[in-house]
Design goal:
114 residues; mainly beta; 4-stranded antiparallel sheet; 52% strand
Length: 114
C-alpha cells in the first residue's frame, strides 16, 4: 500500500514558478516509477511527466517540455515537479501517481493568472 500526498500548489502569475511535492509512504516508492498528471476543468486527465525509480530516465509531455522538471529524492520518499514559465493553460489540478500499483494522490490546485 502506498499513500501519496501532494503539496505546493497555489495561485501564480503567468511567467512565474511553482514547485510541487508528492510525499509517499510505503515500501514500494523507491522501486516505482513516479508520474505527474493534471486535469483542467472540463478536460480529461493528462500525462505531464514521469521519472524512473532511479531518477535516471525522464519523460515529459510536449506541452511542458523545457519548462517543467521532474525529480525525486528516494531517501525522502518524495517526488517533485518544478514548474517554470507557467502559462494560464497550465491551470489544473495536479496529481501524483505511483506507476507500481497505480496509486494516486488527492491532487493540488495550480492556478496561473494572465
Amino acid at each position: 500500500q502506498v499513500q501519496l500526498v501532494e503539496s505546493g500548489g497555489g495561485l501564480v502569475q503567468a511567467g512565474g514558478s511553482l514547485r510541487l511535492s508528492c510525499a509517499a509512504s510505503g515500501r514500494t516508492f523507491s522501486s516505482s516509477a513516479m508520474r505527474w498528471f493534471r486535469q483542467a476543468p472540463g478536460k480529461e486527465r493528462e500525462f505531464v511527466a514521469r521519472v524512473s525509480w532511479s531518477g535516471s530516465s525522464l519523460q515529459y509531455a510536449m506541452s511542458v517540455k523545457g519548462r517543467f522538471t521532474i525529480f525525486r529524492n528516494n531517501a525522502k520518499n518524495t517526488v517533485y515537479l518544478q514548474m517554470n514559465s507557467l502559462k494560464p493553460e497550465d491551470t489544473a489540478v495536479y496529481y501524483c501517481n505511483a506507476a507500481e500499483g497505480n496509486y494516486w494522490g488527492q491532487g493540488t490546485q495550480v492556478t496561473v493568472s494572465s
